[in-house]
Amino acid sequence: MQSVTFGIDVLANSVWFFNREVTRDLVIELRDYDNQANGLPYTSVWAKVGTLDAGKTGWQHLSVTIDDTSVLGLPSGWGGYGAEDAQGNPFLPSDRTFASVLAGVDEVAFTTLVPGFVYGFTYFDVAVDNISISPVPEPAQGGMLLAGLAGMAALARRRARR
């Protein structure tokens, strides 16, 4: 099981919709352009990372973690895109899994557009910084790291005594 965290720092100065301040969800979308389905431009999985809110002062760190990148079904809070039902609601095509989309990611997009839904006429004054993709260390790796640091500390103490 491999875990990964996607993070971004945002500063929402203003988010306007028809002359009034609003909030918008910030979404991460992991897109696979090589496996298009159903006439749509790509297949993807997506999740809400946080909310852009100009009422909050200062920078915000927003992130989402995928606990297991080998899972087949969509984890809680995640959606899929690559097929649509009769009402135009997006879903992951039946021949694709969460893991298969992750294995073929061509683009990572932070956006306010949830796949399959349209939002228009919104003015954004938003700054972004520190976009990151970080593997989450496994517990065994953390233990090995601590053991290594303890060994180095013991060696340093021994050398200091000499």
Automatic annotation (TrEMBL):
Domain Ice-binding protein C-terminal positions: 135-159
InterPro entries noted in UniProt: Ice-binding_C (IPR013424)
Domain of life: Bacteria
Pfam families xrefs: PEP-CTERM
Protein name (record): PEP-CTERM sorting domain-containing protein
Organism: Pseudoduganella plicata
Lineage: Bacteria, Pseudomonadati, Pseudomonadota, Betaproteobacteria, Burkholderiales
